[in-house]
Automatic annotation (TrEMBL):
<protein>
    <recommendedName>
        <fullName>Four helix bundle protein</fullName>
    </recommendedName>
</protein>
<feature type="compositionally biased region" description="Basic residues">
    <location>
        <begin position="101"/>
        <end position="111"/>
    </location>
</feature>
<feature type="region of interest" description="Disordered">
    <location>
        <begin position="101"/>
        <end position="125"/>
    </location>
</feature>
Length: 125
């Protein structure tokens, strides 16, 4: 049996550290990290928030911000773009939550079909 006391640097399953979007964003901005790690952190941000899909979002960021794989200013612009988009979605989700709480308080337990739900995927008609 292995000793998982932490001296070996090995952690048992289930103790993997999860990093949030904000945590990865801080890594992208950290000039003390190797550049490839910062690029990897941006890709992790995209993995957590990918409004167009992973590869399409990366392509969009590159088209808007520039070649972030080799340009630090473009890397930071790409992060700003995805953070702004994520903030817009979060504001929509927060506003929806407020509307739903109020509707529930008034006895409307089921959302109406015409109410836009930012948590749901768009339905094809």
């Amino acid at each position: 049996m292995r000793d998982f006391s932490g001296e070996s640097g090995i952690r048992p399953c289930g103790s993997v550290r999860a990093v949030s979007f904000g945590g990865y964003a801080r890594k992208v901005r950290d000039p003390g990290l190797p550049y490839r790690h910062r690029i990897s952190a941006l890709r992790s941000c995209v993995q957590l928030y990918r409004p167009l899909g992973f590869h399409a979002t990366l392509s969009y960021l590159e088209s808007k911000a520039g070649r972030f794989r080799s340009d630090e200013a473009a890397l930071l612009r790409a992060l700003d773009i995805i953070e702004a988009s994520c903030a817009v979605l979060q504001a929509e989700v927060d506003a929806y939550a407020v509307r739903r709480r109020e509707a529930k308080r008034q006895g409307r337990r089921t959302p109406r079909a015409q109410d836009a739900n930012p948590n749901a995927f768009p339905r094809r008609r």
